[in-house]
Amino acid sequence: MNTVHLRARRAGHAPAPRARVVIAKPGLDGHDRGAKVIARALRDAGYEVVYTGLHQTPEQIVATVIAEDAPLLGLSVLSGAHLTIVEKVIQLLAEEDAGDVRILVGGIIPDADIAALEALGVHAVFTPGAGIGGIVESVDRLLVTADTTVTTETPHTSEPALEQAC
User: Fold this and answer.
1) pLDDT along the chain (166 residues), means of 10
2) Tell me, what DSSP letter sits at residue 79?
3) Full-prediction pTM beyond 0.85?
4) What is the rounded distance in angstroms from the CA atom of residue 110 to the CA atom of residue 38?
């Protein structure tokens, strides 16, 4: 049992629900272990997680974010189509008046593409080796602060790259 639920159980009440997060697996890539691990970690941290499953189109992903009224979207992309997919998702979110949705991208992202994702408006990029605890802490910070600074965590960083707003 995770720490949040264990503390709540000892205190005799359920933990307060946290924000809803959509985790999506766009494109034709069928490898979703990482997305499921992150979805479970966020659920265990108290978030309400909606996992869209495999092979989602940008339109399906945005429709889920809108329907679930989720302030955060995590995209897991291993296929190499991350720039095209993220650009389309961000465009569709803007068209739906949901440009304020925070976006995280994880997967096989070449270092050269991280800056391009940041320029598109991605709030954090996680590459192989990023710690689960750091990802959860980044989600916490993104959903607590109104700061829209784009940040990145790479496997070479032991601490989350996001800094809490003053």
Assistant:
1) 50 66 94 95 97 97 98 95 97 97 96 96 96 96 63 38 35
2) S
3) no
4) 20
